[in-house]
C-alpha cells in the first residue's frame, strides 16, 4: 500500500504494465525505415521532375537559339535587299536629266519601298509569332505532362 502525499486515500493493488524496450525500439526502427523509404521515393520523384524540367529548358534554349538565328538571317536579308534597292535608286537618280524625272523616280521608289517595308514587317511578324510558339513549346509540353501525371496520381 502506498500513500499519495497530501491525500488521505490509499491505493492498493495497482498494477503497472512493464515497459518492453525491445518492442519500442522495433517500432521506432519500423517508423524510421518507413520514413527513409518515403524520403527515397520523394527524392526519386523530385530528381525525375528536375531532370524533365532541365531537358525542357535545354530544348527551349536550343529552340530560342535556332529561331533567333533565323530571325537574324531574315533581318539581314531584308537590310541587304533595302541597301541594294537604295543603291540602284541612287544610280537611277544620277542618270536623271530633268526635275520631273527626278520626282517621278523618287515617288515610285518611295512607294515601292513602303510596300517592301510592309511585306518585310509582315514576314518578320509571322516569323516572330512562330518563334515564340516554337520556343514556348518544350516548356508547355513539360508542364502539360507533369499536370497529367499529377492528375493521374
TrEMBL record:
Domain Phasin, first and last residues per copy: 51-142
InterPro entries per record: Phasin, Phasin_subfam-2
The organism's place on the tree of life at top rank: Bacteria
Stored Pfam families: Phasin_2 (PF09361)
Protein name: Phasin
Provenance organism: Rhizobium loti (Mesorhizobium loti)
Amino acid at each position: 500500500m502506498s500513500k499519495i502525499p497530501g491525500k488521505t486515500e490509499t491505493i492498493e493493488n495497482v498494477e503497472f504494465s512493464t515497459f518492453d524496450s525491445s518492442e519500442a525500439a522495433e517500432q521506432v526502427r519500423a517508423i524510421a525505415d518507413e520514413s527513409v523509404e518515403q524520403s527515397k521515393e520523394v527524392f526519386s520523384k523530385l530528381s525525375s521532375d528536375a531532370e524533365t524540367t532541365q531537358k525542357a529548358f535545354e530544348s527551349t534554349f536550343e529552340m530560342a537559339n535556332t529561331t533567333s538565328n533565323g530571325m537574324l538571317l531574315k533581318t539581314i536579308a531584308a537590310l541587304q535587299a533595302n541597301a541594294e534597292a537604295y543603291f540602284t535608286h541612287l544610280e537611277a537618280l544620277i542618270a536623271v536629266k530633268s526635275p520631273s524625272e527626278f520626282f517621278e523616280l523618287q515617288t515610285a521608289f518611295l512607294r515601292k519601298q513602303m510596300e517592301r517595308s510592309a511585306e518585310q514587317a509582315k514576314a518578320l511578324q509571322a516569323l516572330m509569332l512562330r518563334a515564340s510558339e516554337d520556343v514556348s513549346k518544350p516548356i508547355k509540353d513539360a508542364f502539360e505532362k507533369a499536370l497529367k501525371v499529377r492528375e493521374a496520381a
